[in-house]
Design brief:
Number of strands: 0
CATH superfamily of the largest domain: Hypothetical protein af1432
Radius of gyration: 19 Å
CATH architecture of the largest domain: Orthogonal Bundle
Oligomer: single chain
CATH class of the largest domain: Mainly Alpha
Helix content: 55-70%
CATH topology of the largest domain: Hypothetical protein af1432
Structural class: mainly alpha
Shape: globular
Number of helices: 17
Order of helices and strands: HHHHHHHHHHHHHHHHH
Strand content: under 5%
Number of domains: 2
């Protein structure tokens, strides 16, 4: 990350000042309506790859992301895949659905971050990685019913994006200080801005009228024990976030080191696995280990 000069003029803001800035932050259309035609088709009983391919073909960005993913090191195919039909065959419905969700959201996010210098590509990898791993973590304790867990993981750090757009000077000073790696990012944010990214993100998602579970994932992803509802989902986002930080996958902006042991001693892990002797813990650890090994290759294809 480029060196940012210290800004002595930055002062914490009151809640009313923060809310006034937040009101001017652009809405993200993709969060309200995510590629509905494709979603309906992918959930239909008859999933014809030709129909899916035709819808994908209308979206150049989704097409590019699809072909980049299927030709990534992760798939290791002998011959490059150049047709959408082939890519749909290799990736399957679940991966296509996740791509359809992530593409418009990330593009909207990128429009909000152009004015602020930050390692955004690595940050997108962190967000998508948390989305993918949230699904894996949650699946160890319950069967996900839809893609809401994936989207909750994807938007958990939306507060950092909103902060970069609404308070660029505060954002720069926060990350200048965070680079020392001696204090948690949320502590620095509260000191410099007056509010941390978790609360800011939740406030923004509430203004966007997103479902409560996504608001809670943003607000409580650092303290899942405080979420009175959707606890398993929020705990899964918390664990996924910590595991990516521990493995150094992507960039969250938080420089305080995290170990794998700390992940398994975290509040989120204990909420998901309250019994230390539970054999499910060993199964979950093995499954997540495999997912973490694959994740960097998948993210290179997605971002």
């Amino acid at each position: 990350m480029p060196e940012v000069a210290a800004n002595s003029t930055v002062r914490p803001l009151s809640l009313s000042q923060i809310q006034a800035h937040l009101a001017r932050c652009p809405s993200l259309p993709s969060l309200g309506s995510i590629n509905k035609a494709l979603q309906e088709l992918l959930h239909a009983e008859q999933r014809y790859s030709a129909q899916i391919s035709e819808i994908i073909r209308r979206d150049p960005s989704l097409t590019s992301r699809l072909l980049r993913l299927v030709n990534s090191v992760y798939y290791g195919l002998a011959q490059p895949v150049n047709s959408i039909e082939e890519a749909v065959f290799y990736l399957g419905v679940r991966q296509i659905r996740q791509l359809a969700l992530v593409t418009p959201i990330i593009e909207d996010f990128q429009r909000l971050t152009r004015q602020c210098q930050f390692p955004w590509r690595e940050f997108w990898q962190h967000c998508i990685g948390v989305a993918l791993l949230t699904r894996e973590v949650l699946s160890t304790v319950q069967t996900p019913m839809d893609e809401s867990d994936y989207v909750a993981g994807l938007v958990h750090d939306v507060g950092k994006i909103v902060m970069a757009w609404s308070f660029p000077e505060h954002f720069a000073e926060i990350h200048r200080q965070a680079g020392a790696g001696t204090r948690e990012l949320t502590e620095i944010e509260r000191e410099i801005l007056g509010l941390d990214h978790a609360e800011l993100g939740a406030m923004y998602l509430e203004r966007q009228r997103l479902p409560d579970l996504m608001v809670r994932a943003a607000r409580y992803h650092h303290r899942p024990q405080d979420s009175e509802q959707h606890t398993a989902l929020v705990a899964s986002v918390h664990v996924a976030d910590l595991l990516l930080r521990a493995e150094g996958i992507g960039y969250s902006g938080n420089h305080v080191p995290v170990t794998r042991e700390q992940c398994q001693e975290s509040a989120g892990w204990k909420l998901l696995f309250p019994n230390p002797q539970d054999s499910e813990q060993a199964i979950a650890r093995a499954s997540l280990e495999r997912s973490l090994e694959r994740l960097p290759h998948i993210l290179e294809g997605l971002v």
